[in-house]
Amino acid sequence: MTEKSVCVKKTLDTRHAALFVQTASKFKSVVKVVLEDKIVNAKSLMCIISLGIAPNTEIKITANGEDEADAIGEIASILE
Questions:
Q1: Which SS3 state, helix, strand or coil, does residue 38 take?
Q2: In CATH, what number is assigned to the domain containing residue 48?
Q3: What is the count of structural domains for the chain?
Q4: What is the pTM of this model?
Q5: Mean pLDDT score of the chain
Q6: Domain range spanning residue 57?
Q7: Is the dihedral of CA 66, 31, 79, 59 positive or negative?
Q8: Dihedrals φ, ψ of 3, to 5°?
């Protein structure tokens, strides 16, 4: 399992959340987003929107699978 903490630079509005989910969905790994005590599937638009991620929020992205390192790197680059 690979994980990375990321400080989100901009609000994840619907458009940015959709891009985030599309990117996460490209990978075979199971990708999760952790915000405080909430853990959600990064490949679900409704789950990502439900987090209400605001600018300058610290989240953790975790990935588990054959392409986990690539998944973490590409997904984090969208948020930073």
A1: strand
A2: 3.30.1340.10
A3: 1
A4: 0.90
A5: 94
A6: 2-79
A7: negative
A8: -140, 155
